[in-house]
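Fold this sequence, please.
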Amino acid sequence: MKGLFKGLGVTMKALTSKKVTYPYPDKPLEMPDRFRGIQYFEPDKCIVCNMCARICPTDCITLTGKPNPDPEKKGKVIDTFDINFEICILCDLCTEVCPTEAIVMTNNFELATYSRDELFKNMEWLNENNQNIRQENNSAMPKGGARKNV
């Protein structure tokens, strides 16, 4: 009988305390600065060095390029850039090795879908994913694209 009253006391105390739930869909979550979310990709900055695809531990990045059609300019032009978020572990290695910072991490994390086929994201989708870019990427990027040593 004593245990029953103890349990009721705990229940009554919980009923009168402040609620700790969060109104998630109505109010967006504030993620920490170092949160690793979905990548943002700028195709204009990409030099098709393939470093991101080489360092990826899950081989989820597909990057192809073609020779530059302008004969005066050397190098390659990006043709396709795809990420398979079905196996991507959001490790941030692709953004660390990118010499031009064409790939940066955002605070976006919503990738829930009903089909696995929708987890293959192409260059256009990644370029449109430009909301909630991490603050360190916005402030540390000068116009030329190289990082500042802080």
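The helical segments are 2-16, 51-55, 93-97, 123-128, 135-139. The longest strand covers residues 76-84.
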